[in-house]
Amino acid sequence: VQLQASGGGLVQAGGSLRLSCAFSGRTFSMYNMGWFRQGPGKEREFVAAISWNGGSTGYADSVKGRFTISRDNSKNTVDLRMNTLKPEDAAIYYCAADWAGDSTVDFATTQSQYDFWGQGTQVTVSS
Question: Does residue 103 carry a pLDDT above 80?
Answer without folding.
Answer: no
